[in-house]
Sequence to fold (460 residues):
Amino acid sequence: MNRNLKQKQHKQSLLLDTSVQIDKFNPGSIDAALRKLSANYDLYTSYFVKYEFKTGFIRSLIAFYSRVNIDGPIKATAKWGKSFHPRDLKYKAIMDCIIAQCDKTIYIGDKKKYLAQIEMVIFHLMNNFMTELTGIVGDFSDDEVIDYEILTSSDFAEFEKKINDRKCIPQAGFWEKHKIELVLLIKDKTVQTSKDFESVNKYLREISEDFKKSDKYFHNKGVGDVIIAIDSPKTHKLVSLDSAFQTYCKVLKKELITLSSSYFAH
Amino acid sequence: MAPQIITGDNDLTPSTNPEFKKPGEEETTASDLVMRDRGDQLTNTREVIDKIQSTVKSTEQPLIFRTYSAPYIAFYTNKLLDEIIVDLAEWQKNSTEDSLVNISNIRTILDKNSQYLEQRAENRILLAFLETIFENDNWETLKPTQIGFIKNLLNDFKNGEIQGDALKEFSRKLYSNKVNIIIESESKSKAKAA
Fold:
């Protein structure tokens, strides 16, 4: 038993970012590979990742649920396909896969049953957010949006109200605490010159001049990946599907695993 | 033009309205064939329809045209209005995209309460107006000022400041508000086209 404990203590820790936490629910994507990783590593995520997961993935499905209730399943699906961000289409595709896995049939012709299925998926996602994970780390604990439990459709309105009343997650304290990392990032040549980081660079510069600017909507939303990278403990390797983290992790001297299909082939 | 009264799913029963037909009640040709194939002793479509109708009637919730007392209707109308006003206030405060849950709540409230709302003339007008929010996707183009207008009128209605004859004026205002929505959206699309 002592040997087992010792082995457990020596396991390396990984921190899963938002893209991984979402894709783990995509059947046939990285879910099986993550299960394998969990045998060799202790998997963690952060409170901020949970915030992005809830205000992105979950909120998108709540919006779809509402549209189905307003317009009926067929019209809502047609509108969803036409007018929404590709990310929302991806979220709906994952939802459909989960429904098909659990129920075999997607009741698109029956509003009540379809609503129940969407509600079931949202519950499933919330209930399994921590599946395979050892724990949750980082700043932003005690945030009311992160802490708010969404179990049934009766929780949707209060959840939306909490988001709408605030729009942004307060970040000024975080940047005050991590001003050294902030300076490192804005001084980095790649962040300064690459087109890919143009807007992030602008937001980071403005935040460095006045931390309160991080609570402006676009600044707040635009620096999410940077926060995840900074917030990840040095003892953890960050795991992401997004290659943008390579630059942040290099500057911050943090280890990164960028997941792709080739990663799992070895 | 008199306002159109929009009725819910549960307002008329087969027994009270001879023209009442549930969707699919007469579309039994396929079932007819299946039943014949199964060897049922049904020799014509009429018999199949009768059999299906009797099954539908016996398994469905009884479609009873319930009568509600005046205090019951008054109490629940006020409660319903309170809930809708809260949702409208949230909708007015935030964008339509950020208020989908509130709009969905209004839809649910109307669906659940249409039965007793249809029993009094003034409530029927109220219900008809609230339903127009969802007609022709009007809810997607409503502006905060228009949402505020609806909210204020509902408040007045709830507080008894609009009653009897005034209710018709209330209804007219609501419908003229709807006309404005259409005119505005038309002029917008014309401007876009130009």
Observations:
- The mean pLDDT of chain A is 91.
- The first helix of chain A runs from residue 2 to 10.
- Chain A touches chain B through 14 residues (CB under 8 Å).
